[in-house]
Q: What sequence folds into this?
């Protein structure tokens, strides 16, 4: 606060609080933190977010529209257009102006799992498949669990990285690397979660622990990957991973402090975003919170059923899908959360 002019200093002995007390007035209540601000409504189950070239647009998929991909023009307010309709898209990433997605294609009505792909979307909305993720899972089974006993491939998020991509496959419990030539390899197979309520949870093949179920991926300013985990909707997890080697260098309880909501209850993290200052944000779908880890301390902001997160040019964007947790199906949308919303 700037210094008072000299002619007002006869009141300097009374601070603002002291003046209120002297007059017998109640101190004003502290202002409530700002809530989420709606950027784009009209969505039902938005899942993931990506930024367009130059930060001029957002891309979002709506699972309720069978994975349609929509574009929101940030320069002209709420102007949404459909990029590709009904393609089963989940994760979205851009290389230059080229939109890429991971997606689950329509099945044939049999008990076999539907195919999953890394694909690109042409300017006219056509889909070109570049890599067969289900075929890779069946041939390599990165997490080593008995194949055929649950969903084998469920690609959920996508990151453009060094001319290729990194795929978050929630069904495979793994991060997959896609080279610029389209070759697939396993970057990291994530371990079972074996703490808290997951410690004695039965799993396939006689194992104990919750599937990690990775859901979101962000590249931090420190060059490391940050990956969120749904943890079978029991115990959420966050991993810090070296993108060169795939080594897990930290996780919650092992180098990353535990958030308060990770102590119990159904806490699943559905995405992660990292700010320019290194602050980490995770969306906790089942507790209606976005959590922020900054300088070793967790804080939270309230928003209904947060799913996807995106940090872009100093702003945190949040996809919200109340329909997922039994809320108003017409209230889904993309919001912004200010730094002051966290407490």
A:
């Amino acid at each position: 606060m700037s210094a008072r002019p000299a002619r007002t200093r006869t009141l300097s002995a009374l601070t603002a609080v002291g003046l209120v007390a002297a007059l017998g007035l109640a101190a004003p209540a502290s202002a409530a933190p700002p809530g989420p601000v709606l950027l784009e409504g009209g969505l039902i189950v938005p899942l993931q977010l990506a930024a367009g070239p130059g930060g001029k647009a957002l891309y979002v998929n709506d699972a309720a529209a069978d994975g349609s991909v929509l574009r929101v023009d940030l320069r002209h307010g709420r102007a949404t257009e459909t990029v590709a309709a009904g393609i089963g898209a989940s994760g979205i990433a851009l290389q230059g102006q080229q939109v890429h997605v991971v997606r689950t294609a329509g099945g044939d009505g049999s008990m076999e799992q539907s195919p999953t792909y890394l694909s690109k979307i042409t300017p006219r909305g056509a889909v070109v498949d570049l890599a067969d993720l289900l075929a890779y899972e069946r041939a390599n089974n990165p997490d080593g669990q008995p194949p055929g006993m649950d969903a084998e491939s469920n690609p959920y998020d996508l990151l453009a990285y060094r001319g290729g991509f990194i795929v978050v496959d929630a069904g495979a419990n793994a991060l997959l690397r896609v080279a610029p030539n389209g070759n697939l390899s396993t970057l990291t197979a994530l371990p079972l979660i074996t703490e808290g309520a997951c410690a004695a949870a039965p799993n396939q093949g006689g194992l104990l622990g919750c599937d990690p179920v990775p859901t979101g991926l962000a590249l931090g300013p420190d060059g490391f990957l940050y990956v969120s985990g749904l943890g079978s909707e029991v115990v959420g997890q966050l991993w810090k991973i070296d993108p060169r080697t795939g080594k897990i260098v930290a996780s919650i309880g092992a180098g990353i402090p535990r958030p308060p909501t990770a102590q119990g209850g159904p806490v699943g993290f559905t995405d992660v975003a990292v700010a320019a200052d290194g602050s980490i944000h995770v969306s906790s779908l089942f507790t209606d919170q976005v959590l922020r880890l900054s300088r070793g301390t967790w804080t939270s902001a309230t928003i209904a059923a947060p799913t996807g997160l995106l940090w872009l040019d100093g702003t945190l964007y949040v996809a919200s899908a109340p329909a997922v947790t039994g809320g108003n199906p017409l209230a889904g949308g993309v919001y912004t959360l200010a730094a002051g919303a966290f407490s």
Summary: Residues 133-140 form the longest helix (8 residues). The chain is about 5% helix and 40% strand. Helices lie at 16-22, 133-140. The chain has two domains: 49-186, 190-343.
